Amino acid sequence: MTTKKAKEKPVILITNDDDITSKGIRSLVEAVSELGTVVVVAPDSPQSGMGHAITIGSPLRMNKMNLFGDVEAWQTSGTPVDCVKLAVDKILHRKPDLCLSGINHGANHSINVIYSGTMSAAMEASIEGIPSIGFSLLDYNYDADFTASKQVVQKMVSALLKKKLDKHLLLNVNIPSLPPEKIKGIKICKQAYAKYEEDFSERLDPHGKKYYWLTGEFKNFDKGRDTDVWALEHGYVSVVPVQFDLTNYTLKKQLEKSNLFK
Amino acid sequence: MTTKKAKEKPVILITNDDDITSKGIRSLVEAVSELGTVVVVAPDSPQSGMGHAITIGSPLRMNKMNLFGDVEAWQTSGTPVDCVKLAVDKILHRKPDLCLSGINHGANHSINVIYSGTMSAAMEASIEGIPSIGFSLLDYNYDADFTASKQVVQKMVSALLKKKLDKHLLLNVNIPSLPPEKIKGIKICKQAYAKYEEDFSERLDPHGKKYYWLTGEFKNFDKGRDTDVWALEHGYVSVVPVQFDLTNYTLKKQLEKSNLFK
């Protein structure tokens, strides 16, 4: 009976970009381990800001780990996107029913969706035809408090597992750094046009040669009340449905009419 | 007089992901050097498949190079996206009028737009408010023939420089590997739903430990005649207008109606 029941459970693939030892991925595993058969495949080192990088020019390693009790777990030397590919082709040998990425230590709202390893792993799953969600908490601390995040994850994943999901479903979920009772609710949003105004800190190395560190100040240029940045600033969890068709259809129509390149 | 004229010319930033010594970037510089004041800022090593990766955890280096005659050129230790950021903040100290990325050795049509360092550099420029185009030739060879590509670049860039461009304009241009007279024209397209069906080649290292190389077969699941893959297969240059707002507005409406997470 137990075996049969276990087999009926949905298979949930979990990955992240902060690395397999982070508190965020552990919190995600704890939040959903009762909701399905969980398998973790995550990077062996931090991969924040890796975007949709894949490893082409060098080989990948993977090792089975004993980190989450009964939950099967693998660490890989690859990027978050590599982890999803390895999980499907070499570990699960099938597509999982759901892919969850995170919980990221730090925001992935607005333009961050493009730079984020967390969201790129989720997008890779969506491209493969696996419904997928990336979760991020607005707290960069190593020891951040994931109490409210775990409740949000449980609520959303439970709701979604009751539905027949579109195979390309992809959600970018950001959670404000607040205690559970202070969170106002879950809001469906659009991606804000908000971005980093970059600057580089210029320094001299011990040999007198210049080097540069990326720094930047976050600026929201989007005044809409339907954006993820607005929702988060007002105490809501933001949920942005995401797509991987990047075609700008408005510009496509304009260019077709213009005959510019004829 | 010469100085004044030079100042009036548009400033064109050129980058790529194959590295600053590749034939593709040299071809791009040659194609547009008469059309503006060209500045090259490109990676010092190959960065294919880097997607929208940025360098957060380590410092960056850059060095001025003498590779393109009179054209100012810098190589950096960063990703293609880092190159755009460094160019704007530390080299040009302004936004260029146009950013061109490539010419990539190999296709960046369909889903490749997401993995491609070439396109991510162009997208970064577009996010920054710099009109931008990524060019790719469907030939991975080191010594590929860029004759037709250079003509396409010249035609498109000349046409665009005559217009007032939207500051977020972003085009993904792919060029079939054909002699100029065989190219049928330039076609405005949508991104095909075509992707790699991945597989990993499993091998043993000299110490008996397993490692994995990413391999894959390209498959087009999109039967439309309005896609980039269709255009390229039929001898056209494909132009896909690209956007960085990844919100799936259709799914957004559905979720808002559903009350799924209330």
Word description of this protein:
The structure is a homodimer of 262-residue chains. Chain A is built from eight helices and eleven strands. Chain A is α/β, with parallel strands linked by helices. The model of chain A is unreliable at 1-6 (pLDDT under 50). In chain A, the strands form two sheets. A nine-stranded mixed sheet of chain A has the order 3-4-2-1-5-6-7-11-8, sandwiched between helices. The longest helix of chain A has 15 residues, at 147-161. Chain A has a single domain (9-191, 223-258), classed as 3-Layer(aba) Sandwich (Stationary-phase Survival Protein Sure Homolog, Chain: A), CATH 3.40.1210.10. At the A-B interface, helix 3, helix 4, helix 5, helix 6 and strand 8 of A face helix 3, helix 4, helix 5, helix 6 and strand 8 of B.
Q: How would a textbook summarize the main sheet of chain A? A: 9 strands, mixed
Q: Which ranges of chain A are low-confidence, i.e. pLDDT below 50, for 5 or more consecutive residues?
A: 1-6
List the quaternary state of the chains: homodimer
Q: H/E series of chain A, N to C?
A: HEHEEEHEHHEHEEEEHEH
CATH superfamily of chain A: Survival protein SurE-like phosphatase/nucleotidase
What strand line-up does the widest sheet of chain A have? 3-4-2-1-5-6-7-11-8
Radius of gyration of chain A, in angstroms, nearest whole number? 20 Å
Q: What is the 3D shape of chain A?
A: globular
- Mean pLDDT of chain A comes to 93
CATH architectural designation of chain A? 3-Layer(aba) Sandwich
Record field, number of beta strands of chain A: 11
What is the count of distinct domains of chain A?
A: 1
Distance between the termini of chain A: 68 Å
**Would you tell me the structural class of the helices and strands of chain A?**
alpha/beta
CATH topology of chain A: Stationary-phase Survival Protein Sure Homolog, Chain: A
CATH class division of chain A: Alpha Beta
Largest interface: A-B, 75 and 74 residues
Helix count from the secondary structure assignment of chain A: 8
In what range is the share of β-strand residues of chain A? 25-35%
Helix content of chain A: 25-40%
